[in-house]
Amino acid sequence: MMSTSTSWADSAGADNPAPAAASSGNDRASGSSSSSAPRPTRSSYVPPHLRNRPPSSAPASADAPSARPGPGGPTSGSRWGRPSRDFGRGGGRGSGGGWNNRIGGWDRGRDREVNPFEIEDDPELAVSGEQENAGINFDAYEDIPVETSGENVPPPVNTFAEIDLGAALNENIRRCKYVKPTPIQRHAIPISLAGRDLMACAQTGSGKTAAFCFPIISGIMKGQVSQRQRGARTVYPLALILSPTRELSCQIHEESRKFAYQTGVRVVVAYGGAPIHHQMRELERGVDILVATPGRLVDLFERAKVSLQMIKYLALDEADRMLDMGFEPQIRKIVEQMDMPPRGVRQTVLFSATFPKEIQRLASDFLANYIFLAVGRVGSSTDLIVQRVEFVHDSDKRSHLMDLLHAQKANGANGKQALTLVFVETKKGADSLEYWLCSNGFPATTIHGDRSQQEREHALRSFKSGIAPILVATDVAARGLDIPHVAHVVNFDIPNDIDDYVHRIGRTGRAGKTGLATAFFNESNSSLARSLADLMKESNQEVPAWLARYAARSSYGGKNRRSGGGRFGGRDFRRDASISRGGSGANGYGDSRGYNIGAYGGGHGPAMTSAWD
DNA sequence: AAAAAAT
What we know:
Layout: H1 74-80, H2 107-111, H3 116-121, E1 146-149, H4 167-175, H5 183-193, E2 198-202, H6 208-222, E3 239-242, H7 246-260, E4 267-270, H8 276-284, E5 289-292, H9 294-302, E6 313-317, H10 319-322, H11 328-336, E7 347-352, H12 357-363, E8 371-375, E9 385-391, H13 397-410, E10 419-423, H14 427-439, E11 444-447, H15 453-465, E12 470-473, E13 486-491, H16 498-505, E14 515-521, H17 529-538, H18 545-553, H19 573-580, H20 606-609
Parallel strand pairs: 2-7, 2-8, 3-5, 3-6, 4-5, 6-7, 9-14, 10-12, 10-13, 11-12, 13-14
Antiparallel strand pairs: 1-8
The structure holds one DNA strand.
């Protein structure tokens, strides 16, 4: 390899021979070709149908991100470095008084329980973004805007110690190096522990998964151990966590396994595109918490493999996505037409970063006397993300992207390529752009719904590890995925929904780090101009004059208006319903007195009022 | 119109 200042992008032109990384511009090349002779990368492109090969077993090369000093100071360094393991394999699983120690639960399984913290130490096996909280600037929490509404909202806590989560869970919190609860955790955990239903708006990366997992795990530990038959045909999970993509379900599973380690609470994941029989065997070994995508869950239910009769906790991650047009019938079937206990009997929590009013109305069907909670983000929302919008005709997008990718290296990522996530509108467009990037010497890969699950997971791994530092993605990657070190999100095609834009750019600037988001705007996006300009204003971004003109020209209707006003999630639709309709939602609503607007002021000016008709 | 989610 040449000097560290010679990044892969240097070789994208014709002048230099391709350095190692450049020749690994696609999945197949991910490991084996990293030391291949320099040659034009054009020839290294492998068409999609030939890419479905198992990842190479080549050891982590010098390209592995562990060598990366990390521009963000000591906190970012700890992400890549091997975390010091200050706990032993058999770490205490103390069971305090009043705690059901669940002996006799899944004992046999526990003997074999893999230590998820050790797995994560292996960079080859590490899948999820670890130590989500470790790099967060907790000082910024003091200014976080919080909005709650509903009856008798339990007060927030300031420390994990204030909550009786149980010794085993506390130990895992320590292992995760979570020092203090994040804002969403401070508010949502007491609400959940009080048994209340919850609709929560909080940006991903702010500790959302833990916020809904801790109370579930704790509740199961405290609860009665029902005698369940290992190996029985039908299994009866106590908790169900649904998410809209397979990769997100995987990520939630990985994370919740850490939280549940040695608690005796078993977490199993089930999603499509992977062999169902393996998942069924895992279920037969016992399951307390089932993490699933909707389709596979329905399949397992129809095979009488899973019953929801014992469900005490239901969590929907990315809940607004789960309840939008495409998903809603499936979710309704699972929640209302299978054998799950009704709302009010089970406990239901919904989480997302965005919550359009009309979706809130739908969601209230699944909730009983719920609390609405909106928590802003560390570093006041998306201020951490520098948003740029550039006017680019469709025909110029590729060359413009190339310019950005070249410029990226000048941004100086300490000799390591920063990760760039490029969103496009269609699966075909994703394949085609990836092909073009690879053909031009850019090490790219792609993830979308037309690829096999193996290919999808491999693409994600290649991206995370830096083997393919450019990922071309459809909206399958827009939500929830925690990919550390995404420096740049490019909206090559601008999404049609402003909420999708919010989720997409949220893949960068995570955990207190800064990020850059660039969108390619042209006439075909004019319907989004107004909401885009408003969003940028709300997050203190400079709005180009030409975009402001588009915004002024366009009407502000349809689904493109901001769902919440303000800079985060949204606000309780029941407040508006009670004003304009003088009535409550379907199942009781809080009066305005529970409403606490915190530091959240002036978020929506007079112009926003019309969005709340 | 598109993406996602079961086989």
